[in-house]
Amino acid sequence: MIPCNFEYYMPESPEEAVETFLQLTREGKNPMYYGGGTEIISMARVSNITPGAVVDIKGIPECNFLGLRDNQLIIGAALPLTAISESQVFPLLGKAGGRVADHTIQRKITLGGNLAGTIIYRETSLPLLVCDSQAVIAGPHGIRQVPFSEIFQQRLYLQPAELLLQIIIDRSYLNLPYVHVKKVKQDKIDYPLLTLVAIVKDQRIRLAFSGLLAYPFRSLTVEEALNDPHLTVKERIDRAVTGLPAPPLHDILGSAGYREFVLRDTLKNTLSTLEGYY
Amino acid sequence: MIRQMKGPGPIQLAVNGESRTVVVRPADTLLYALREQLGLTGAKPGCENGDCGACTVLVDGWPVKSCLMLAVEAVGHQVTTVEGLKNAPIQKAFIEEFGFQCGYCTSGFIMTCHGLATIHPEADEVVIEEWLQSNLCRCTSYQEIKNAITSVLASSKLPAP
Ligand SMILES: Cc1cc2nc3c(=O)[nH]c(=O)nc-3n(C[C@H](O)[C@H](O)[C@H](O)COP(=O)(O)OP(=O)(O)OC[C@H]3O[C@@H](n4cnc5c(N)ncnc54)[C@H](O)[C@@H]3O)c2cc1C
Ligand code: FES
Ligand code: FES
């Protein structure tokens, strides 16, 4: 049972959504955009958040679009993760979304919610970071398109009242050789101890990680090290580990030392799986 | 036209093939509406956090954890609870395979399995495990539950007599 009361709005266009959000803000109702609602409901139930209104974006056609247009894949931010994985249009994103929470919840968690949520893992950001994707954002000043890596630095940075509408990925990235590995503490359904996504583009490996640090990231320093043809595999991995932007997380899922051990092993397997492509 | 709900009031839900009126707050979950308003107690409150799956119902044929869905979100969708299944093959299979002990998780598991049998009747072992991992059973009837869904899928693959 959610103890607080909130109002519910379901607009049918990006303009209506932003206008509604602004109006509710002016009325002091502390509105939130509502995607799948899984995080909002879980957090409101324990009074971690108390929105006065939610603006459900699932009625906006742009947010529900999935398909190719002009050699670009467009993915609406309100699409549930299952819709992306079942469509098989972008296997790597399907795999990443297919390991978030469990299969039933993947039908409710939206791509936008996973990217914009406060839970630190945001695993669907990894394919988007390595594939030079673009983000389409609606806000008080209209609609803008920006490189995803520009607005997603550790977390999604949106201006007040802004809403993530769509993600765009160039078709040339959709079927590149890839590796997706999610390591959890035990069993299969859990937050990641380490999730690694790697693709090979123009004979170079690109990688992004979740669960290793307190935020998802892609590191060019790590990529430099792993792509250096003059080093042995062990030297590449040593240099990649030294080049991490921060020391590994040390928490209930695993110690920093254990995470480093898992990272080294996963990098070794990744290099071997992708051998011949880079 | 924007749809909105500002406070407690009546909404129409399509539940088990019937149109039903429930009076809810916008912040009430589907689980609450089904149990407290309609007396459909087959969907169980467990963790109310998306972890256990005891509250699973079908929405437009897909399993959904009703503790993580607002009642107002279900407007315009077809909701099926375990009470709406009438002698579905998975119900018989649970009895034949001894798929439960205390029974608290059973309705949730049955809805997940029924959704799988309907959406992916060709599901292989990997897909079966992926779907079943959404539900927890404290009495650990996992193997029997897997046997039940496997038998239903196997019989649906048999050529019609
Ligand atoms: C049981 C459970 C297990 C989980 N396991 C994992 C896991 O293994 N890995 C992982 O990465 N994550 C995991 N998560 C986190 C989950 O992906 C996030 O909580 C995500 O926010 C939920 O998506 P949603 O669509 O339900 O978001 P909502 O609850 O609707 O929204 C979450 C936040 O995002 C904002 N938001 C939503 N959509 C948009 C948009 N289009 N534009 C701008 N802001 C928006 C909302 O305002 C809100 O602040 C788990 C969550 C649960 C409940
Ligand atoms: S009560 Fe809904 S998942 Fe546990
Ligand atoms: S039979 Fe008791 S919880 Fe599953």
Please characterize this protein's 3D structure.
The complex is a heterodimer of chains A (278) and B (161). Chain A has 278 residues and is an alpha+beta fold. Chain A has three domains: 7-59, Uridine Diphospho-n-acetylenolpyruvylglucosamine Reductase, domain 2; 61-173, Uridine Diphospho-n-acetylenolpyruvylglucosamine Reductase, domain 3 (2-Layer Sandwich); 178-273, CO dehydrogenase flavoprotein, C-terminal domain (Enolase-like, domain 1), CATH 3.30.390.50. Chain A has helices at 14-26, 38-45, 81-87, 91-97, 103-106, 111-116, 125-130, 148-151, 220-226, 233-242, 256-274; strands at residues 7-10, 31-34, 53-56, 66-69, 72-76, 134-139, 142-147, 152-153, 155-156, 163-170, 178-183, 194-201, 204-210, 217-218. Chain A has a five-stranded antiparallel beta sheet. Chain A has a four-stranded antiparallel beta sheet with strand order 11-12-13-14, with helices on both faces. Chain A has a three-stranded parallel beta sheet with strand order 1-3-2, covered by helices on one side. In chain A, helix 2 (38-45) links the parallel strand 2 and strand 3. In chain A, helix 10 (233-242) crosses helix 11 (256-274). Chain A is globular. In chain A, 48% of the residues are buried. The model of chain A has no long low-confidence stretch (mean pLDDT 97). With 161 residues, chain B is of the alpha+beta class. Chain B folds into two domains: 9-84, Beta-grasp domain (Ubiquitin-like (UB roll)), CATH 3.10.20; 89-156, [2Fe-2S]-binding domain (DNA polymerase, domain 1, Orthogonal Bundle), CATH 1.10.150. Chain B has helices at residues 30-37, 89-96, 106-119, 125-132, 142-157; strands spanning 3-5, 9-15, 18-24, 56-59, 62-65, 78-80. Chain B has a five-stranded mixed beta sheet, sandwiched between helices. The longest helix of chain B is centred in the C-terminal third of the chain and has 16 residues, at 142-157. The radius of gyration of chain B is 16 Å and the shape is elongated. Classes of the chains: A alpha+beta (278), B alpha+beta (161). The A-B interface holds A 1-2, 4-12, 16, 20, 36-38, 41-42, 44-45, 54, 56, 58-59, 82, 98, 101-105, 107-108, 188-189 and B 1-7, 25-29, 32, 48-50, 53, 56, 62-65, 67-70, 72-73, 112, 130-131, 133-135. Strand 1 of chain A pairs antiparallel with strand 1 of chain B. The complex binds flavin-adenine dinucleotide (FAD) and FE2/S2 (inorganic) cluster (2 copies). One FE2/S2 (inorganic) cluster is lined by residues 100-105, 137-139, 141 of chain B.
